[in-house]
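Operator note (shift B, R.M.): manual run for MutS protein homolog 3 requested after the automated queue skipped it. Running by hand, logging everything below so the morning shift can see what happened. Input copied straight from the record, untouched. If output looks odd, do not overwrite the archive copy; leave it for review.
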Amino acid sequence: MRFTATKKGHSRRDDSNTAEPQHQDSAQDAGQFDGDEEITFLYEVGEGVAHRSYGLNVARLARIPRRVLDIAARKSQQLEDETKKRRLGGAAKLLANVLGDSSDQLDHLISSIEQL
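Run finished. Output pasted below as returned.
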């Protein structure tokens, strides 16, 4: 069962046993003055998962101090970079299975991927 409540006071009950991913839709623009990304959270629920986290945007709306946001942004970027590198490494291993035993080609592929 899923129960959804909105800020407008509407509610909805869903008795189905399936849990489908949903996210709050948003619109984003580059900030006009400080260069920060401007996010407008819409009062709509979209199908599927959100393509990224908006935690830093919510923290900025909550007026978390700028120095804390800067540290969090660096840590978030590091985590995204590490995750991307692991995924690319996994893709390279899968491709290695397709290529066979040609380690020279695999080394060249991995080197090329790491430069992305």
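Quick read of the result: The first helix runs from residue 55 to 61. The chain has three helices and four strands.
Leaving this for review. - R.M.
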